[in-house]
């Protein structure tokens, strides 16, 4: 078996990555034709019942409408109170445990030997044939080696160098916003700023930066894995296009360095200069996986925190007044926004052996979902958990970045971007008025917004 695996890896290393994705796409189409599409879950939006109208066994915590229909707070509150480690026997993604209390989530997240991140960190399984490998879904020691190879891209020294550039880009975006007229904050600010950042991290052609957002959105919205809205066909086409661009980026960078150019602090340069990842291009699914992880990791999350902050401050106008009176609260407010928003609702694990968690027997092989969105609203840890309190003393204790070996690698970068955004906003604008309800994305994983109409008033 090992020899066969080695043979397959060798063959794969010689085939361009995009062709491999196209092959997987064909395989998937044949499967769909043979099984008449019965393998993909299909979601239809129906009104979710009030928490008091339904028994605990019947609540579907995998529903991609939980957040969009604003049912999540009451559902999770009931779970925290009545069944903090809760088994859902049926769901479109199979059975799973929901862990909803802060302390239990920490126990699971910090114990990677007992709760494995392999083979995937979202509820469903990857589409057949598209098993791209990311270190977020690997256990030590492989995880540690791969993480170490790329984490220089967000090392403090690199971030310091990036700060001036981020500020310039934030100023440019804010100075070009329409004043005293409605516009969509999500597309004009949040997406614009995160795409600029991603292009910097990857040294990706700046004028094509919106492709990064498109690919990342496709990867994060798959109905098979998160209940989102993308079609699998689009996902395969997008991943093949992404593979083509990333391979070209890799070879172009290698040629420039071979031609005497100094390696930069971008991700591709780092991967090419690290012993463990120098030949990553020859392990196509791992190559693609690690690059996808960086763009997905840094895309939705930061974008939705940028939008979430505006939504939260409009719901708690007293906090906006507090902020204007004391801008030194911005760093703490950034943590509080990330807690309040919780841009990624959960991470999934698999139990590696039978174990007992808060009185419940979890069997080897069971799926365990750590609901950060619930832990961040645990009233035993956060006072008035549903409120945004920008000077909350324990805001930094939020779970949104996870804990343990997988703790978010980009947390400092995300905080830096948000801090600069709010510093520049407060300097320019008197008010940011939210016009109507935000549009919430359909997903059980990404907790975010597709549209938020606002109007800004400049300072006199
Ligand atoms: C991992 C959230 C920004 C890159 C994670 C995890 C979460 C998370 C929940 C998994 C933690 C766990 O399993 O314990 C967030 C949030 C962000 C954010 C809420 C913004 C507010 C970023 C940015 C980047 C990034 C900007 C890009 C540099 C990563 C990577 C991992 C990760 C590479 C995998 C770490 C590992 O497995 O060792 N993030 N993230 N994230 N994030 Fe972030």
From TrEMBL:
An MF annotation (GO) of this entry: iron ion binding
Family statement: Belongs to the cytochrome P450 family.
Superkingdom of the source species: Bacteria
Keywords: Heme, Iron, Metal-binding, Monooxygenase, Oxidoreductase
Claim: Heme is one of the keywords in the record: yes
Protein name: Cytochrome P450
Keyword Heme: yes
Pfam families according to UniProt: p450
């Amino acid at each position: 078996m090992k020899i066969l695996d080695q043979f397959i890896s060798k063959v794969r290393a010689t085939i361009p990555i995009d062709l491999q994705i196209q092959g997987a796409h064909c395989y998937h189409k044949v499967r769909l034709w043979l099984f008449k599409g019965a393998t993909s879950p299909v979601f239809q939006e129906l009104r979710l019942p009030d928490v008091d109208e339904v028994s605990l066994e019947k609540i579907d915590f995998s529903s991609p409408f939980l957040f969009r229909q604003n049912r999540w707070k009451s559902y999770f509150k009931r779970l925290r109170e009545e069944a903090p480690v809760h088994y859902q026997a049926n769901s479109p993604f199979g059975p799973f445990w929901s862990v909803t209390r802060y302390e239990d989530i920490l126990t699971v997240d910090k114990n990677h030997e007992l709760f494995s991140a392999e083979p995937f960190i979202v509820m469903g399984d990857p589409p057949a044939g598209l098993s791209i490998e990311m270190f977020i879904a690997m256990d030590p020691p492989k995880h540690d080696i791969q993480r170490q190879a790329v984490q220089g891209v967000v090392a403090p020294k690199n971030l310091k160098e990036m700060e001036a550039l981020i500020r310039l880009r934030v100023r440019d975006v804010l100075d070009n916003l329409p004043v005293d007229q409605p516009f969509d904050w999500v597309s004009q600010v949040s997406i614009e700023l995160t795409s600029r950042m991603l292009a910097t991290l990857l040294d990706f052609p700046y004028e094509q930066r919106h492709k990064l957002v498109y690919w990342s959105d496709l990867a994060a919205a798959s109905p098979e894995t998160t209940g989102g809205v993308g079609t699998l066909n689009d996902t395969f086409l997008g991943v093949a296009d992404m593979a083509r661009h990333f391979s070209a980026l890799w070879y172009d960078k290698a040629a420039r360095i071979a031609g005497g150019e100094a390696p930069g602090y971008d991700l591709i340069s780092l991967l090419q200069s690290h012993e463990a990842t120098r030949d990553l291009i020859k392990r196509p699914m791992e190559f693609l996986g690690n690059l996808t992880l960086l763009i997905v990791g840094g895309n939705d999350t930061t974008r939705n925190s940028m939008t979430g902050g505006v939504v939260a401050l409009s719901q708690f106008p007293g906090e906006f007044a507090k902020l204007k009176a004391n801008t030194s609260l911005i760093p703490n407010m950034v943590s509080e926004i990330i807690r309040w928003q919780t841009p990624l609702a959960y991470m999934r694990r698999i139990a590696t052996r039978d174990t007992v968690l808060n009185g419940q027997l979890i069997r080897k092989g069971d799926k365990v979902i750590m609901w950060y969105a619930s832990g961040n609203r645990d009233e035993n840890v956060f006072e008035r958990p549903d409120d945004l309190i920008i000077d909350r003393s324990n805001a930094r204790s939020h779970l949104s970045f996870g804990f343990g070996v997988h703790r978010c690698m980009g947390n400092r970068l995300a905080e830096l971007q948000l801090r600069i955004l709010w510093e520049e906003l407060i300097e320019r604008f008197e008010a940011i008025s939210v016009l109507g309800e935000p549009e919430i994305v359909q997903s059980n994983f990404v907790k975010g917004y597709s549209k938020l109409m606002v109007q800004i008033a400049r300072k006199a």
